[in-house]
Amino acid sequence: MTDQITLEEVLELVELEFVNRAWRVKHVQGSVWKNVYGSVYGYVRDDVDDVGGNVREVGGIVHGTISGCEWQFVETPKEKLKRLIGEGAGKAQLLEAFNQLEGS
Question: Are 48 and 96 in a shared domain?
Fold first, then answer.
């Protein structure tokens, strides 16, 4: 294997687009092994090791810290009630969750 990549091989891994007089990466079919100096607008399917900026949504697990603080999942009363209904929870749990929702 050579240490050079062809343009065709690059275009199998990365889709580019030209927007507002500038090129940008649209899709990556693989892993980004090092750094991204810019924003990611869209979906990251796998792990992200270090974040130096903002994260809008997390669909998985956060390991480590965010801005030096331990990360903790917080479920809102509405989310808790919805989850319990989906899990088929008993009346007592649903009533407790509903009361928490009313109190918030």
Answer: no
pLDDT, tens digit (0-9, with 9 covering 90-100), for 53-83:
777 777 777 777 777 788 777 889 999 999 9
2 belongs to a structural domain: no
Structural domain of 104: 74-104
C-alpha distances in Å from residue 13, one per residue of 4, 7, 28, 38, 101: 14, 10, 6, 19, 47
Per the listing, tokens 């965010």 go with: 66
pLDDT tens digits, 8-54: 999 999 999 999 999 999 999 988 888 888 888 888 877 787 777 77
Instruction: Indicate whether 102 and 53 sit together in one domain.
Output: no
- Let me know whether 19 and 65 are in one domain: yes
Q: What is the pTM of this model?
A: 0.49
- What are the DSSP calls for 36-90, one per residue? --S---S---S-----SS--S--SS---SEETTEE------HHHHHHHHHHHT--
Q: Say if residue 65 is in the same domain as residue 80.
A: no
